[in-house]
Amino acid sequence: MSRSTTVQNKIARIENVFLEKAQYNLTVREQKIMLFLVSNIDPRQKNFRTQIIPVKELEAVLKHDMKKWGGLYVEMKKFARSISKKQITFPTDVVIDGQPLEGYINWFSSVVPKRNEDGLVCISFAFAPELKHFLLKLKQFARIDRSEVLEMKSFYSIRFYQLFKAIYQKQEKYRTVVYKTISVAELRAMLELEDKYTKFTEFRRNVLNPAHAEINKYTSLHLDMEFQRNSKRQVHAVKFMICHRDDVPKQLSLLGDEEKRSISEMTKEEILARSKKFEITHFKKKYPGAYRDAVKKVRETFGDKIDPNHPAYMNSIVGQCHTWFVENVGK
């Protein structure tokens, strides 16, 4: 079976449990090829069919990231060798000494170069049968638009995009904004980082920030983050706010110069500290009319699209009041 990269094949359908629980680490190119191959699958079929893909089609997908290209032969050899060795780690129900044992699944049962009936050089991909539970006869699945990841440069961006797509699509019928809190340990395990980026500042700089930026730039989702700290002031979890980009609260347009720092870069403590510095309580008492107008404007902008307790809501009110103060009273 030979497939093309035409628009009708751009949606990859993957079971939610895989996107939320599977642990793996692929290169950006491997992840893009994987989504391309999954988008070629008819999930109604009983078993996987071998996909025989002309290398020119694979080249088109791999070259899109504009990274250094080492020549078709070199890249195809490198890709086939690498992807055939990659595994997926998955939690199981088997417990020994109180700890669940992990299972390991290969992506493919075979990756073999050959020629198709037209004489074109191709690579034959046969998905491992253990993946049928996640790619065939789907029950609760996410629709991943692979055209939204073509420009991404980070594997973490692609992996998180799929995760948040699954989380969002499960709840979008019931709410506009979806919240999900995930521990840092879970995020690290999902990406199989092991000893990489062990400090949270490194994890944030190299994993979270690029993923946050690329998801908001290239996809239909909008993502914001709030970092949660334990009693030792260490970040132990991340609360994600996920919505469609057409529904994103317009909080950034409400901020003054000082308030233009991204919401995702701030904690609740930082917002409260800045509010105190601006003396918002004093402002509310001295300029009640201006404060009411600021709250009204923020509510009109947000509508029902955001939880009033979300830091972005508080931050926007402070920003409105600060802007009014600068314009009408002076610094």
Note the main attributes of this structure.
elongated; three-stranded antiparallel beta sheet; 42% helix; single chain; 10 strands; 3 domains; 22% strand; 12 helices; Arc Repressor Mutant, subunit A; alpha+beta; 331 residues
Protein model, in words:
- The structure is a single chain.
- With 331 residues, this protein is of the alpha+beta class.
- The protein folds into three domains: 147 residues, Winged helix-like DNA-binding domain superfamily/Winged helix DNA-binding domain (Arc Repressor Mutant, subunit A, Orthogonal Bundle), CATH 1.10.10; 98 residues, Winged helix-like DNA-binding domain superfamily/Winged helix DNA-binding domain (Arc Repressor Mutant, subunit A), CATH 1.10.10.10; 77 residues, no CATH class.
- It contains twelve helices and ten strands.
- The protein has a three-stranded antiparallel sheet. A three-stranded antiparallel sheet has the order 8-10-9. It has a two-stranded antiparallel ribbon with strand order 1-7.
- Strand 9 and strand 10 form a beta hairpin.
- Helix 9 packs parallel to helix 12.
- The chain is elongated and about 80 Å long.
- The termini are far apart.
- The N terminus is likely disordered.
